[in-house]
Amino acid sequence: MNGREIPDAELLEVVGSSVDADQDGREDGLIVLDPPITEGDKEYDRINLTEPTLYHAMSASQVIGKRPTLATIYDSQIKLVALSANIPEKVVKQFPTRALDEAVSYVMAFEDDMRRPEDFQISDLDLRPEKTILFKVPISGGGREYSDMRLREPQVTEHRRFKAVEGGGSVQDGLKAQMQLIEDVSGWNRAALLRLPMSKFVEAADYLTGFFIAGQQTGKLSR
What we know:
By secondary structure, the protein is α+β, with helices and mostly antiparallel strands.
């Protein structure tokens, strides 16, 4: 994870309960600022972006709130870039607009490129009874290190818990619901989950929620 190591307790604050990211070989995004930006006693001429973690995405989604607006979505993007680059939001707000657009495009691609497309077919879903995701660099949390994540088709009780959290309706509630589902199925500690690179989080979430979509499409409805 870029910057200081965030303690488990601080990670968990973002979800109101109870980031050593595996970059999968992708190089950091570089944003060159010309002229440089000065904030306090520090000058910023090059910004190195890294893949956001789930913690970063959760933190940024808090800004959007229950009723998204163009302004709150823009503020969320600013926060996500700041967290991914480990720089103050004040610096990001001084970016030229095209530099911010470039930065947002980079950090969002880790999630957007992994999400299943809107025009997917049922045949495109990964409905294997089990799936294992491997990590080149183990992810820590709760006093443990995880080098793999073992997933399976969710049970009814796990699906119900997912629906209950998702029912909050906000962007953050959607992320929380997916995190809850992954936690229930995988047995991972929540602090470790918050350190997941977004591409890995999406891979796990799309696999698990794919079973819900397949069930809705093929199940018979009572009349």
